[in-house]
Design goal:
Elements (H helix, E strand, L loop, with lengths): L5 E6 L5 E5 L12 H11 L5 E3 L2 H5 L15 E3 H11 L2 H12 L2 H14 L22 H11 L3 H7 L4 E3 L9 E3 L17 E9 L3 E10 L2 E10 L2 H17 L1 E3 L5 E3 L12
Antiparallel strand pairs: 1-2, 1-9, 3-4, 5-6, 7-8, 8-9, 10-11
Helix pairs in contact: 1-3, 1-4, 1-6, 3-4, 4-5
Length: about 270
């Protein structure tokens, strides 16, 4: 069992669900939303483009939201912004990227929802690019796994989200460069939560969502995606992800030619699997 209310481990290549719990129940996703944001930015913008931050992008944030202290008028490359988005989880950076791609957060949310529908999501609605609290911003573990499948097919996104250290440029408010490191503790070899073979991932937390996590791992040629939503605490989401990934690898049969098929699935709760 897992401690989170909802969790899934999925074979990335086939999309087969190896284990699922409440996978069709909608939850607030928090910052794992930023995987969709990053994917759309990479699909619709050049890395060497420049994001000019508006007043609305840097001020339209709830109290306590994670930021990089970017100010209105700051100009930062799309590449630097993506590292700030996925490693630091900076919410004003998400807004700036959304405006850069679509002209406004609202228009970008429309793009997010269109992409979600194209990926086969059936119970997802995004209203912002960062995952900050909004009752109309929700997805399911199953839908989020589908989004993650597409996200982790983008090599640049994988590289950014698994980078261990990145130098972020100075801004108006911060005169020196800063070193960004990932919040995904399963990437750190000296951490008890380390899991070998991580391709990429994203953590999240808000008061509404609780603790969330999406991660992709490759082992012996097999890629699995684990998604955790509504975990009770910071520690539980990583433990649950380890449990799901261990179960997933224990129940996949790997052939000599590296092709594989999952063994019969565990019962999936929370709705009929599509």
């Amino acid at each position: 069992g897992i401690l989170a209310e909802s969790g899934i481990v999925m074979d990335k290549d086939s999309g087969a669900v190896i284990f699922g719990q409440n996978i069709h129940v909608p939850y607030a996703p928090a910052s794992i939303t930023k995987l969709m944001t990053a994917l759309l930015v990479l699909e619709n913008s050049s890395l060497d483009g420049t994001v000019t931050f508006s007043e609305g992008a840097v001020t339209n944030l709830e109290s306590g939201a994670v930021t990089l202290n970017v100010a209105a008028g700051d100009q930062i490359s799309v590449k630097d912004c993506l590292y700030g988005l996925l490693l630091k989880s900076a919410n004003e950076v998400a807004n700036g990227l959304a405006e850069h791609v679509s002209g406004s957060v609202e228009k970008f949310a429309e793009l997010m929802n269109a992409k979600a529908k194209a990926l086969g999501c059936t119970n997802t609605n995004f209203v912002n690019p960062n995952g900050l609290n909004n009752p109309n911003h929700y997805t399911t573990c199953r839908d989020m796994a589908k989004i993650a499948k597409a996200a982790f097919e983008n090599q640049t996104l994988c590289e950014i989200s698994s980078t261990m250290s990145y130098t972020f440029p100075a801004t108006k408010k911060v005169s020196q460069t800063r070193t960004l490191t990932p919040g995904h503790k399963m990437l750190y070899p000296n951490d008890s939560r380390y899991y070998a073979g991580i391709v990429g991932g994203k953590t999240g937390y808000t008061s509404l969502a609780g603790n969330t996590l999406v991660t992709c791992v490759e082992k012996d040629g097999v890629r699995l995606i684990a998604t955790i939503m509504a975990a009770p605490d910071f520690k539980a989401r990583f433990g649950d992800a380890q449990t799901l990934l261990n179960y997933g690898y224990a129940n996949c049969k790997l052939y000599e030619d590296k092709e594989h098929v999952p063994l019969p699935q565990m019962p999936v709760t929370g709705g009929v699997e599509d």
